[in-house]
Design goal:
Helix content is about 15%, strand content about 40%. By secondary structure, the chain is mainly β.
Length: about 80
């Protein structure tokens, strides 16, 4: 069993499975975009200077950019 971590800890090219969203303040848009427990994601780009993270949601082949502050509340199981 691997250690759980938050999405902001991943490096470019790493994949992970979303385990949980650790906040009640997450907007519904995250669920609508596919950030659901069990979803596999891959980090495509990380902007410098604490900028956004671009993610590929593997199942739908969607590219989505989110803030680091939002990524911190997404709990993942790294692959």
């Amino acid at each position: 069993m691997r250690d759980k971590s938050s999405l902001d800890k991943l490096k470019k090219g790493q994949k992970a499975i979303i385990v949980d969203l650790n906040s009640n303040d997450i907007p519904a848009k995250f669920y609508e975009m596919g950030f659901l427990p069990g979803t596999e994601i891959e980090v495509k780009h990380i902007a410098p200077l604490n900028g956004p993270i671009c993610l590929n949601i593997i199942a739908s082949n969607s590219l989505i950019a989110i803030r680091k502050s939002e990524a911190k509340v997404i709990i993942i199981d790294p692959k």
